[in-house]
Inverse folding.
């Protein structure tokens, strides 16, 4: 029977037979009329257990190779997650800036709308100034200056008549 300590990972084991047992086994096979191991092609007088690998060095390198590939995959996954985190932060910052600009614009629109409805004297004076600038732009510089002079003369005429 094969001891558990001598069983290799591929399920094979090294049997504990001594060389005398080999000779007696081959003699028994010859007496029974069977072909001996030495007569079989490719055996060269060895038992099948003797021809099998008893040390598994190639499998050791296979596990090292698989371990390296696994480690590389983990490294690539970490790199992809880091790139995803950076892109998420970048797009989050862009969205934050766009949201802030939108909120500023909305607040500005509400403020201008309230000012336009206001009856405060400063607001009324500003509206009048804006209207005169619009007239200035429509008529041109000469007409605007003439209308300003005309308004000044009227104001002076009224003040002189009031005296």
């Amino acid at each position: 029977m094969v001891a558990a300590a001598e069983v290799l990972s591929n399920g094979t084991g090294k049997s504990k037979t001594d060389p005398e047992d080999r000779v007696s086994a081959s003699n028994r096979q010859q007496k029974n009329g069977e072909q001996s191991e030495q007569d079989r092609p490719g055996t060269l007088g060895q038992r099948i257990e003797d021809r099998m690998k008893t040390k598994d060095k190639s499998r050791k390198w296979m596990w090292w190779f698989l371990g390296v590939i696994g480690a590389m995959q983990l490294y690539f996954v970490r790199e992809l997650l880091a790139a995803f985190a950076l892109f998420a932060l970048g797009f989050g910052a862009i969205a934050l800036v766009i949201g802030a600009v939108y909120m500023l614009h909305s607040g500005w629109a509400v403020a201008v709308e309230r000012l336009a409805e206001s009856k405060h004297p400063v607001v009324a004076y500003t509206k009048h100034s804006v209207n005169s600038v619009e007239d200035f732009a429509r008529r041109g510089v000469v007409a605007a200056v003439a209308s300003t002079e005309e308004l000044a003369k009227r104001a002076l005429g009224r003040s002189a008549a009031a005296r």
